[in-house]
Amino acid sequence: MSQKPDPSRRQTGRQQGGPRSAARLAVVQAFYQLLMAGEQNVEKISKEYVDHRLGAEIEGDQYVKADIDLFKDVLTGAWTRREEWTNLVKDHLSSGWTIERIDKILLAALCAGTYELAARVDVPTAVIINEYVDVTHGFYENAEASFVNSVLDKIAKKLRT
Known about the structure:
The protein has a single domain, classed as N-utilizing Substance Protein B Homolog, Chain A (Orthogonal Bundle), CATH 1.10.940.10. Helices cover about 60% and strands about 0% of the residues. It contains 7 helices and 2 strands; from the N terminus they run H-H-E-E-H-H-H-H-H.
């Protein structure tokens, strides 16, 4: 699969997404890093992102400034309650699908999106789902983004109705 450009970077001189979108992308990346490294210290990773990545210039690419409060809230809420969110995701998978079958970056997007659906009632459902679908498009093709859309939509119907 070909990867699309990183939505947190500037493309052809104009920024892609705003601070809240950049925060959500960073949450998915940090959550993935926590999963892959076996790192349990969410505060350490959060500080690393805030101090060295969010809004920084890295290897000549200028990253969009992220909403740091949103980043910290979603990363901490998604990570510390990841077992709860993973079980909720598992309950809304199609027949024959298992959590183990889901790529870690998709699991990160689903856990972050599920946390926001549960805890961030100030954010409209459609915004949350669309944001995590957009983040997914930054890493995958349409099938994976449709998968994230479908699962988060099912979870939203359970949590927000």
